[in-house]
Design brief:
Distance between the termini: 103 Å
Keywords: Immunoglobulin domain, Repeat
Pfam families: fn3 (PF00041), I-set (PF07679)
Strand content: 35-45%
Radius of gyration: 30 Å
Number of helices: 2
Helix content: under 10%
Strand order of the largest sheet: 1-8-7-3-4
Number of strands: 22
Domain Fibronectin type-III: 134-229
Organism: Ilyodon furcidens (goldbreast splitfin)
Domain Ig-like: 29-102
C-alpha cells in the first residue's frame, strides 16, 4: 500500500473526528434505572431518582418533574438536582397533597422520553389516639383588607369516629404564632375569617375534630397579603404642566355625599350544595364613611344587597 501523503493526513484525521463527533451526537442519554411505585409516610421526606445510560448532553440538562401533569418547581420544600447521569427530586416534608402520579421527562433527539408511576402517602401517626387525619387542599378563594374566605376538603381518614367539624387557624407571619379563629367547630368545609388587619401577610391551616379530639393541622396555605382589591379604582392621576401630576380621590369628587348608592354587578362567584359565595361592586358614589354590607335573601334563591 502506498503511504498517505503528509498533506492529506490532516484531512483524514479531521474526517475521523467529525465521524466520531457525529456518533456522539446520536448517542443521547436514555432512561436506565427509574423510581418504582413508592410509599412514604405523611410528614417524612420523599426522594425520587432517575439514572441514565450515559452523561446527559447539554440539550438534555433540563429534566422536568411533574405531579398529576403539573410541573414541579424548586422551592423551600422541593429540591431538584441534576448530575452527569442522574436526576433527583426531594420533597422535604411530604403531605397528602403530594400523593399522585409523578413523571420525569427527559429530552432526546427524537422528542421526549417519560417515566411515571404513582407515589402513595400513608397517614402519619394521629395527633391524639383514634383522632382524625389532617384536612386537604386548604385554599383562599377571596381576599380583602379585613377578611379571607377559606375552603378545604375532608381528611382522608376520620379516625375511630366521624369528623364532627373543624378548627381554622391563622398566623401573622410578622409574629409567627398560630391563633385559632373559631370558638365553636365549623361543620362545613368553608369558613370566612374576619377581623384581619389590612396589609398583613397571613397563612391559614385547618384541623379536623372527632370525639377523640383535634388532629394534626393541614398544610398551610401560601402567604396571603390582606388588601382592599378596589383601592386602585378610587384614585385618579391627572397630568398637569411641566410633568407634574395631581392625584384625586373619589372621596374628593363625591363632595358631601354621605349615604351610599346601591351596589352593582351582584353575582354568585362560587356555588355548592351547601353554600354560595357572593361578590359585587361597591356603590358609586359610596360616601366618605367606611362601608359595611348586609346580605338579604328573598325566597329560596333571590338575594338583595344593602350597603
Amino acid at each position: 500500500d502506498l503511504p498517505i501523503p503528509q498533506a492529506c493526513q490532516g484531512a483524514v484525521a479531521g474526517s475521523e473526528h467529525w465521524q466520531t463527533f457525529g456518533l456522539q451526537q446520536q448517542q443521547d442519554a436514555q432512561f436506565d434505572i427509574s423510581f418504582p411505585p413508592t410509599w412514604v409516610r405523611e410528614g417524612s421526606s420523599l426522594s425520587l431518582q432517575c439514572t441514565f445510560t450515559s452523561a446527559l448532553l447539554p440539550f438534555q440538562q433540563d429534566v422536568s418533574w411533574f405531579r398529576d401533569g403539573v410541573r414541579l418547581q424548586q422551592s423551600s420544600n422541593v429540591d431538584i438536582k441534576m448530575f452527569d447521569n442522574k436526576a433527583t427530586i426531594t420533597i422535604m416534608t411530604a403531605n397528602k397533597e403530594n400523593e399522585g402520579v409523578y413523571c420525569a421527562r427527559l429530552r432526546t433527539k427524537d422528542g421526549f422520553k417519560e417515566h411515571m408511576t404513582f407515589v402513595y402517602l400513608k397517614d402519619g401517626p394521629a395527633a391524639v389516639l383514634e383522632g382524625p387525619a389532617s384536612p386537604l387542599a386548604v385554599e383562599v378563594s377571596d381576599v380583602n383588607k379585613d377578611y379571607v374566605f377559606l375552603t378545604w376538603q375532608p381528611p382522608s381518614a376520620d379516625g375511630a369516629s366521624s369528623v364532627e367539624g373543624y378548627y381554622v387557624e391563622r398566623c401573622d407571619l410578622s409574629q409567627g404564632e398560630w391563633v385559632c379563629c373559631n370558638v365553636h367547630i365549623q361543620k362545613m368545609c368553608y369558613f370566612p375569617v374576619y377581623g384581619l388587619k389590612e396589609g398583613v401577610l397571613y397563612q391559614f391551616r385547618v384541623r379536623a375534630v372527632n370525639k377523640a379530639g383535634a388532629g394534626h393541622p393541614s398544610k398551610a396555605t401560601e402567604p396571603v397579603l390582606t388588601a382592599d382589591p378596589l383601592e386602585h379604582t378610587r384614585t385618579m392621576v391627572v397630568k398637569v404642566d411641566k410633568g407634574r401630576t395631581i392625584t384625586i380621590t373619589k372621596d374628593e369628587l363625591e363632595g358631601q355625599v354621605k349615604a351610599p348608592f346601591p351596589p352593582t354587578d351582584v353575582r354568585a362567584c362560587e356555588l355548592s350544595d351547601t353554600y354560595v359565595v357572593l361578590s359585587w361592586t361597591e356603590p358609586e358614589p359610596r360616601g366618605r364613611e367606611p362601608l359595611t354590607f348586609y346580605v338579604e335573601r328573598v325566597g329560596p334563591y333571590a338575594y338583595t344587597y344593602l350597603p
